[in-house]
Structures are given as C-alpha cells and as structure tokens.
Design brief:
heterodimer, A: about 130 residues, alpha/beta, 5-stranded mixed beta sheet, 5 strands, rod-shaped, B: about 400 residues, mainly alpha, 2 domains, about 0% strand
Chain lengths: ~130, ~400
Amino acid sequence: MAKRKIKKIRTLFLIICILQLFHIFFFRSEFQYEVIKNPFKKDYGISFVVSPEIIETINILKKHEVKDFNLSASVKNNIYLFNKTIELNYPIRMNENSKMIFFLNKENVPNNCEVIEAGKYFKFTQC
Amino acid sequence: MTKDNFHEKITLVLSFLILNNYFFLSLNFPLLLIKINFLIFLAAVLIFYFQNISENIYLKIFFLFIIFMALGTASFGWDPRTIWLFHAKRIFFDGSIFSVADNYAPFSNNSYPNLAPAFASSLAVLIGHWNEVFPKLSFSLMFLPPLILTYTFLRNTQYLIFLSIVFFTIGKFMFNGWLDGLVAIYFGLSAFLMYLLMINTDNFYKNKSLFYYIAFCFFVSLTLLKNEGVALLLILFVTTFLIKIFKGELKKDISRLIFLSFSFLPMILWKLFCYSKGLDDAHINIDLNLSSKLYDLDSYKLIAYFMLLNEKFVICLAFFLLSFWINWNKEIFRFILIAVLMYILVLSFIFFTSPYGFYFQLDTAAVRLVRTLNFSLAFFGLYNLNNYRI
C-alpha cells in the first residue's frame, strides 16, 4: 500500500518536471529551430542576436580586411550601435586613431574622407 | 552517500576541471592543455552518463533537454552578451583571462570575475572557432557538479522534487547565458555543505575529506562566478562564525574554517590584479546620500514589491515554513534564516546606495537576484523533510 502511494507521488512529480520543462521550452526559452540547425558552425548566430546595421559593419570590415576601425561621433552617441559594433567585430578593434571610420548614411562625410563603401546603413570611409 | 562515492567523485572531478581551466588560462598554458582539460571534463560527463546508466536517470534525460535548449537559443540580454559572452570571446581570441588589462570596451565591466567566460572560451578552443550560439552551452555544463552532488543526499522522489525546484526557481537561467542561475545553485549547495561540515552535529560528513574538497571547489567557483558570489560566501562564513561563537564551538572547528576560507584567495588575487591595472568596477561606486531614501516609506514598498512579493519567493518561503512546521529542525532553520536575512539586508543596502537609481536597480536586478533566495529556501525546506520516506 505504502509502496503504491510512493509510486504515485513519484509519477506525479515526474509529470510536474516534464510539464515544467515543456513550459520553459514553449513559453520561456525563445527557442528557434533556425538556431539549432547549425549551432557549431563558424560565425553562426550573429543574425539572431544583433540588428542588420551591426551585421553590415561586420561584413564591410571582413571584406576590406582592416585591423581596426573608428566610429563617427553620431554612432558613438548611439549606445546600442557603439556597444554592439565593438562586441561583434572583435577581434577587429575600435581605435580612436584609426583612419577607417564608419559614418551613418544620413551623416555628412568630412571633405578629407574618401568613401570606400556605402552600405544600406553606414558609409565606410578612409580619412 | 552513493555506491563507491561515485557521484561525489564525479562532482569533485568536474568541479576541479572547471577551476583548472581557469587556472590554465590564468597562467597562459598552451592551448593543447586547455583542450585536453575540456576533453577530460566531457569524458567525465560521459562516465557519469554511462556508468550505471539507470542511476539518476531523470537528471540524465532532463539535462539532455537543457543542452538541446541551450543550442537552440540565442542570447540577447545585456549581461550575457555584453559581459559574459564578450569576455569569453576576448579570452578565446587573446588566449588569457588577463587580456582585459587593456580595459578595452570598459562598458563590458572588465573587472568582473571570469570563471564562466573562461570555460566558454575553452569550449570554443576545443571546437576550433567562435560563434554566437554554442559557447553558452558551457554555462549549462557548469550546472552539472551541484546537480550531481545533490543525488548523494536526496534520492528517488525527493530528487525529482529537487529537480522540480530547480526548474521552478532557475528555469530558463539554466541555458540562456545569464549567470544568476549558477550563482543560485552554487550558493544553495555551498550553504548546504557549510551546514553539513560546520554546523550539523552528525559527524558522518565531517570525517569525509572528499566533502571538504568539494566544498572548497564550490566556494571558489561561487566567488569567481559574479561579484555577488563573494558577498554570498562571506555571508555563509559570518553566519557560521556567529553560530559557532554562540554555541561555544569555534575553537573546535577553527582549522577547518581557516582551510575553507582560503577559497577567497583566487578572487582576492583577481581583484588585486584589476586594482593594479586601474580597472574600474562601476558597481562598487556607492551613493551614500541615503537619507532621502531611508526616510521614504515608498522605498520599502518598492523593495517589498520587487523582492519579497515576487510570487516565486512567496511560494518558496511558504514551502520552507511548511517544511519546518511539519518537522522542526532548529539547527538548519537558524542557519538558513540568518544567511537569508543577511542577504536581504545586503541586497537592500546595495539597492539603497546604487548610483544608478533606486527603481532602475530594483527593476533590472531584483527578480534575478532573488532566485538565490528562492532556491536556497526551497532546497533547505526539501532537505528538512529528508527523513520522510517518499
């Protein structure tokens, strides 16, 4: 009798654990099948964690094989763009003395700067 | 105890390898050694899974599901992305935890401890490259030592209830890249080991050196996870110290306490390094202009609202009280109550003195930090009912 009762309690808590995991999976986890398709692929997952602006800076810096870059004052004032550009482009570093500068597309580029590539969100320049 | 101390030994090996990885990266050991260290860790996990496969089967199955979720989610939050995973990325590319000395990207809080990022970077070293998904899997793997150790004390249905408590109090923090879940479980188990080795009158565990090594590893891990871990471990030591003085037993256990207190050393060395390099810890800045907040009733209402009226906290507290109502155990109750009250006081002090604004700090941090209390209360409540055969 006691054994059967214990078994019932165990089954109840097993069901509770399974329900909790399903609740976490469906309502809390933000699980995406797109993410789990290639979780170990090199450089995978960037598009899931940052906006297209940041991805554009990554593509431009890789394409031009630069070692460091700088950001215009407007970009630096935007906390999201400033932080994420630095984080996601590492090990390419931001350097205050770098001549390779990102300007927002809506910004005017100084006369001493040459636009190397104009993307959808940024102008990549050499000053 | 498990057969041949299997679970205890696996816990010690896994916990030691996590710390060893940090030690290797501190001393710029070759990447090959770091890879071997991580491979041994994975081999130990496989041994845990396949040596007597049916033992602790619920954890084995549920943890596979946690791994699946870790690999199928991306991390968006500020702390996981900008602090922990960015630190891991820096360690991966620079090959040392000391690369932060240049204070590049100071917004990522370079002076924060790096145990978890170091482990994530080593997983990336083993895989051979970096991406934005798999490194946080290592944070989930760090849950294994405390989860495995608990099987030593709670079996069958009790272990299932324990897992249910973990899912309830920690939940998605087991795989989403935040470290608050790790702090909660490492604190809970550290408090438990401190209780068994220092407070409990039963000498069974006190005479087993294996448990002292495990406790030492857990204490070091707790301090190197987050700054908050140092405060939590200090609370455990102060609580133990006070109880020992009260009981007049301080002399008897002082050598053991001194041995365990060496667990603060790695964190002290890290903070000395940060201080010598001028790395700023923004969260240590405090606003001592307290009078306006201290005399304002709304401040206390806000603290109560965010911390103590949190539904999970209320449920865990109710379970804890119910457990001690059913089975009164003065020793456990006194120990955990002092620790919890001291933690609430420390948290309140931090919120009152935060330079970032009272409401902002509570809104962003209270729900995460209170997980530690929730887990500890529920865990000790469950352990207190250990003698009931279910």
